[in-house]
Amino acid sequence: MKRRQFLQGTAAAALFAPTLAREAMAQSASPTALKMAPQANLTSLDPIWTTATVTNNHAYYVFDTLYGGDLDLKPQPQMAEGHEISADGKVWKIRLREGLVFHDGQPVRPADCIESLKRWGQRDPYGQLLLKAVEAWSAPDERTMEIKLTRPFPMMLDCLAKADNAPFIMPERLAKTDATKQVTEMVGSGPYKFVASEYVSGSRVVYEKNEAYKPRAEPPSRNAGGKVAHFKRIEWPILPDPATAASALAKGEIDWWERPLADLQPLLAKSPDITREVIDKNGRGSIMRLNHLQPPFNNPKVRAAVRMAVNQEDYMRASQGDDTSVWQVCRNLWWRGTPYYTGELEDLMPQSLDKAKVALKESGYNGEKVVIINPTDFPDIGPLGDVTYELLKSLGMNVEFAASDWGTVIQRRNSREPVEKGGWSIFHTTGAAVGWGNPALSNLVRGPGEKGWFGWWTNARAEELAEEWLYAPDQAKQKQIAVTLGRLALEECATIPLGQFVIKTAYRKSLTGMLPGSAPYPWGLKRV
């Protein structure tokens, strides 16, 4: 029996058992508690150490940011009360809101913010550009942070309001941890507290309302505005089996399933008790990331052969199903709907196995092993690796498929060792299209080498273009630079795009206040 038929059959039995559903709902529903099945197991807690989306989502519960981006992606003060800029644009003074307190009872100080930004800037592409421009950090008083620059940084607020892999503020003592090492103690100042005593990786994550949190007065908008926590407790039951998650949602054992499997969406649509909604209208991009440090993908000609062979429709159908209303091809590292998308780069991605075989033969590839690290517990990502495995075999490459849970994948992709010593060649992932929407935000087009994202593409010209974009005199020049950079990154196979899709999250109709955005925000939600 095919996977889709099996899953649909198993889930259908749960979805259409109304008596069981009513009994379970009566037992589990609570006005003060929420249960959400997240997209994947939470194995890494530190949002600076990893770019895993599930960790970023977790961080929004625990931490807060100086600024947030509203639904129009405009920066708004969050922890900040406001700011002043010197006449020459080289000095920024950011004043903190009064009464900000960490979960351990300590006040939030400028020193906490400074060390948090410094640590974040070591790992994040936008942060790296900011740190390059900083001459000195200081704290003139107990609520003011001062940033002295070597030159004006025109997009300071956009940088500090970054939504995906955001500059979350931690206590100074935690923020001083080496950025290449994980912080495991979760102390923030956000609307929820992480309950370490109830955390069991692979089973459950628990958060409790931070009673000391003072929301802003403005209405919530994406990751800005008033973050009002209506639930006293939120649980994340880890449900990697889609049929189990669908059954739990149908019976009311959980309130929200963040990322329902595409194969089960038609069944969920038939339930009168479930709402399905696209909360991230811009969607997500699927990508293949190659290891540029080790053979065979330290050879740009081998990388190019793989790029030429990729057929995005195969990847989208495998991961998102046959409903073409929820996915589309995008042969560009600037995604559809973002400012710098200018059309399909078909010359670079001809989707031709024959051309790819010729290119591989001419590349000098000598049978080096390609190791694909791939998750078995992440339905949006796992099928991407399956398609790549078959594709590379058809090209005649020596391929090994290393299947594991997602937590193991995000640990292993840190390794820079050869594959014989536990390294890797390829991993796949997805990310918010707007989070990869410009040269400062996107890891996909940046080439800082070993200081950059996993895969470690090195290209000095790419880094020059990113900086030129940042300081460009107008939007027209910015677009020209971004388009040039996007093409360069695709030519060099910094990243290979695999298509674009939207997710219909699913939740019980008893929930209200669901916010649009690129993360499953907990604030504003309540039960009716």
TrEMBL record:
Domain of life: Bacteria
InterPro entries documented for this protein: Peptide/Ni-bd, SBP_5, SBP_5_dom, TAT_signal
Record domain Solute-binding protein family: where: 74-427
GO-annotated biological processes: peptide transport
UniProt-listed PROSITE patterns: TAT (PS51318)
UniProt-listed CDD domains: PBP2_NikA_DppA_OppA_like_16
Major subcellular site: periplasm
Keywords: Signal
SUPFAM superfamilies: Periplasmic binding protein-like II
Range of residues in the leader sequence: 1-26
Any single Gene Ontology cellular-component annotation: outer membrane-bounded periplasmic space
GO molecular function: peptide transmembrane transporter activity
Family assignment from sequence similarity: Belongs to the bacterial solute-binding protein 5 family.
Name recorded for this polypeptide: Peptide/nickel transport system substrate-binding protein
Species the sequence originates in: Bosea psychrotolerans
